[in-house]
Design a protein that fits this description.
The chain has 114 residues and is of the alpha+beta class. Helix content is 28%, strand content 50%.
């Protein structure tokens, strides 16, 4: 189940759209924590709103997972992100994420490092 949820979670970002965001309850915990340099939030509704804001604020966002390692209940992702961010211009970021799974195989924490 973790492998299936891993693929679904990566697809969420690589194919980010309002449609892919809608189905995330299938593989993300209701009380998921997401942290990056700008946010530290808890809850799937807030996480969904953050992803929707990304779609509103970034023209042509492209996430590409370049490496992944799954170790027990933690998924490590190396990725690139690019897009035109309103008010900031073109962005290209290389980062890593530590994604943890709960006992049921759902994503319960996502911490970005970039």
């Amino acid at each position: 189940m973790t492998t299936q949820n891993t693929k679904a979670y990566i697809r969420l970002f690589e194919e980010l759209s309002f449609e892919t965001i809608e189905g995330m309850e299938a593989f993300v915990c209701p009380n998921v924590r997401f942290k990056d340099p700008f946010n530290d939030i808890t809850g799937i509704a807030v996480f969904r709103a953050l992803l929707e804001k990304t779609l509103s604020d970034v023209s042509d966002p492209i996430f590409c997972v370049t490496n992944q390692v799954l170790d027990d209940k933690t998924l490590f992702l190396r990725w690139t992100f690019q897009g035109h961010v309103k008010g900031l211009g073109n962005w290209h970021v290389v980062g890593m994420s530590a994604v943890r799974f709960d006992d049921h195989g759902k994503i319960c924490e996502h911490i970005d490092y970039w």
